[in-house]
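DM from R.C. (forwarded with permission)

"hey, sorry to bug you on a friday — could you get me a structure for this? deadline for the figure draft is monday and I only need the backbone to look sensible"
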Amino acid sequence: MAGEIEVLVKQVMNRLQGGTTGSGLGIFKNMNDAVEACARAQKEYMKCSLADRTRIINAIRRVVYDNAEELSRLTVEETRMGNYEDKVAKNRLVADKTPGVEDLVSEAMTGDNGLTLIELSPFGVIGAITPTTNPTETLFCNSIGMLAAGNGVVFSPHPTAKNVSLKTIDLINRAIIDAGAPPNLITAVENPTLEETNVMVKHPRVNMLVATGGPGVVKVVLSSGKKAIGAGAGNPPAVVDESANIEKAAIDIIKGCSFDNNLPCVAEKEVLVEEKVADYLVFSMKGSGLAHFIEDPALIKRLEEKIISGENPNKNFIGRSAQVIAESVGLKIDGKIKVLCVEVPFEHPFVQHELMMPVLPIVRVKDFDDAMKKAIEVEHGYRHTAIMHSRNVEHLSALAKAMQTTIFVKNAPSYAGIGVGGEGCTTFTIAGPTGEGLTSARTFTRKRRCVLADSFNIR
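My reply, with the result:
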């Protein structure tokens, strides 16, 4: 009984010590205070054992499951992006498939000159910029990986997802403090702005920067002079060759493209289909009852004017439903429709720009060689994701080698690449620009070598 009382008292004291505003635990008025508090907490966190870390990470996983529905609803209400059901699925995916402490694998080498041990140690304080497209998923995923690695985290959420992001940070803090973590291991400011983010980026106590978002934020962290991980844009092509199971390809493409209204950067952004099977693919997509094809050139032009602003997608339509987008051009469609499809030339803006909305351009190509050439070009060298539907192993291998993308999905919806219906771990920070790929706990560590010379070789 005395031990239980001691634990409860410690939990209460930890909460009282945590930085808090009306926005919640770990939330500060200014970035300097947020960083300094996190730095102090991370030093205390280094005293925790791996078993302690595991308990803390498990507490985050429980928070995800307990709050996935509410946070998903709040995200859709605040950002007006995506859909509730898919956001719930993404949050729970994070809880199930984000690697924890088990990802930190040590190496050992022994020989005549003794023993060398290589272990993965934390950087210290990580400054993490999170997006409006996947706000809670990225916060949860980064928290699990970065804390499993032994770091503290200062988050800079996107302002358009501020409220749900701060609520998520508060929930995580309450859970991990109850699990034994020091207060302020995860912090943020109550009013995230570009100015506050710049303070975080330049702060001497921030040892690593991680940006999940568009090219702008990635450029900021890469210009910082610090160790930086950038998870930037993608424009994933889906290639369909003549050997593919066309009926299955049609459904898989619709599912992947429409997942959370096309917000994930892994999602199919354009289809390149061989001429021989193009009509059948279109027929199969129409027959699914989930895709509406816009064929009137004047209506396609009107849609272009609505959803593209200059060379960028119109922010008002990013992550919106097919119904909302259709209504904007005076088109009424069935409530079951998931995707608006248009057949356009390869040079069309719908093909060349990442729209991040359920508008899917379809391009006919002469043959596989033409498809491969165009897929490489339209991916723009982001090396993010590509998808292919084919039963020709040589074609699958050739495109995978040529694309050099971080994720290459074969004969499945794009989301199989982040663990939905596919094997392997998940992440919502996919670092193509800086090369780390699918980030996990080990990504947020540095290798340290410990050498014992002339001893402990027992072979």
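R.C.: lifesaver. The chain has two domains: 2-232+437-450, 237-425.
me: no worries. Residues 50-79 form the longest helix (30 residues).
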